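Hey, resending since the last one bounced:
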Amino acid sequence: MSRKLRSLARLVRLPAALTVLGDSLTGAAAAGRLDRPGTWALPAASVCLYWAGMALNDHADRDLDAVERPERPIPSGEVTPGEALAVATGLTAAGVGIAALAGGRRSALVATALATTVWTYDLVLKPTPLAPLGMAVNRGLDVLLGAGDRTGAAALPAAAMAVHTYGVTTLSRGEVHGTRSEVAAGALSCTLAGATLAAYPARTAPATVRGSLGELAAGAFAGSFATTVGTAQARALAEPSADHARAATGTGIRGMIPLQAALLSRYGAVGTACALAAGAPVTARAARAVSVT
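The structure tokens again:
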């Protein structure tokens, strides 16, 4: 990989994109739309919009990063502010375009709303107390992206992902200067709430799945998610240092994958859940080379 490509990979937090692949698939499973061919292209739209948000984040934070995180691509001189903005703009257009082609008018509308909230978060909300809520809305909309015209059916998985995202975002604000015990406790509560929602049996799952394989898989994935993420957050609760906050944030981001797998299993898509979960170790290894935070 050339130096420029590596810098761009760091700009968009390349490995973290694997944590959004399951969002729209979870929404589609809840809405009974996994069998539609266009559904399987929607994760590409999610990836584009996620990467756009990361590039825009660094563009908006370039002055702060020059002081707190000078190793990031813009303050280090590896990527110019103009290049970061161009990447964010191009990826936003690509994300909305893919959603329109793959999911039709309703998915295009949700993708447009998601793009709007992503840009609003990075340019307006991030320095404010509303930042965690803004990020939670982003993640919830990404789940609804896969639901088509049945967004109501995907409300629970959207809420589960949004609640966990809220907790991760509140904790991430302590990555540089440390956090507070009550913030870590709140993040841990959000993780447990997300796991509970994912493990609770779904009445809309196929009858052959309810009470058997789907529920067992949902419980296993939810338990793995709660244990792994919760343990890291408990460390931050016991010692709310910047190192523990940063570690818990990274674990929380990677924990999106088992949470999505639990939700997919909840709606009977156990095979898809297992395939998604198989990518979790890849994300962990890639995160050692390119930070996800």
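Residues 167 and 189 are 8 Å apart (CA to CA).

Sorry for the duplicate.
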